[in-house]
Amino acid sequence: MVELLLVISVLMGLYLAWNIGVSTFGSTIGISFGSTKIPKQTAVIFASIAAIFGVALLSNRVVDTISKDLIRLELSGLLSVLIAIVIIATIIVYRGIPISTTYVVVGAIGGYALISGAEINFLTFEKVLISMFLSPFGALLIAFTIFYIMKSLFAKEYSSIRKIESFEMKFFLPGFIALLILTFALGANSVGIVIGLLGGKISFSTLILIGVGGLILGIITWGSKTAHRLGVEFADLSPSRGFIAMLAAGLVMIAFVSTGIPVSTTQTLIGATVGVGLARKNVNVMQALKVSLSWLIILPAALVIISMLLAGLIGFVL
């Protein structure tokens, strides 16, 4: 029976890694080909390699935080949490909404612990939760600052349409490098969160295979829908603005992950995108603030609450 539960849990972990590939990785690739116009196949191949390095080199810190510092789940508890995450994550993927599953994972863990009485480190839980909500605004501030400084330094480049086009063409390579930085951080952070649930149950090398396999499969099979949503519909980014958004999000994520604190890749990237938009000063500030409030606070908070309730209910039934 124990072996069966473990197999089911591993399969769910693989599915959630696929979900990361569809939702989170898709959002990242969307910013790339929505701004820098890097060919999609090229972006996917190199970004996948960067993500694999992120998983292999840095995800162990997030895995330790989830599986050791935050909570130690028995198989029945692990199954309860995974079922809740799978249900909500499936709805997110089906709707093509670029919202991070990180909130769902952390919320489900907290909800199960509250209802079942499982021992959880509330200090770590509070730190993770606060960090997830702060990281988008950190990325927003950094992106805003970089854009403002760059526009001040290269004011002459914005004096005519011809000069603007020439200036933007220079960001093809920097945008590609920023994409690699961001997807490296994505692998360490987002995949680390998913495989972290299985930490201590199977070897780390097997966890890496599960995470990487699901990630790549996700972007290949269904990631285009989310990629189009964030890269084309949600964001209006030129090569320079795409570079700034990806770089700001990647640096913020690496800073958090290096300390073992997971954050939301998608929300951090959206925060950076909003920061660039605000710095351009050609948007309705009040409308932008309303959108920011919805995407960066209200929706994530709703996901946390819903996942807590669902995981707690499932844990009570099981």
Number of individual domains: 1
Total E-strand runs: 0
Using the CA coordinates, give the radius of gyration. 19 Å
Summarize model confidence as the mean pLDDT: 82
- How many H/I helical runs? 12
GO molecular function, one term: phosphate transmembrane transporter activity
GO biological process, one term: phosphate ion transmembrane transport
Family: Belongs to the inorganic phosphate transporter (PiT) (TC 2.A.20) family.
Keywords: Membrane, Phosphate transport, Transmembrane, Transmembrane helix, Transport
Concise synopsis of the structure shown:
The protein is built from twelve helices and no strands. With 318 residues, it is mainly alpha-helical.
Write up this protein.
By secondary structure, the chain is an all-alpha fold. The protein has one domain (2-317). Helix content is 83%, strand content 0%. The protein has helices at residues 2-35, 40-70, 75-95, 102-116, 122-153, 161-169, 172-196, 204-221, 223-234, 239-257, 265-280, 285-317. It is globular and about 70 Å long. The chain starts with a helix and ends with a helix. The mean pLDDT is 82.
Keywords, separated by commas or semicolons:
318 residues, mainly alpha, 12 helices, 0% strand, globular
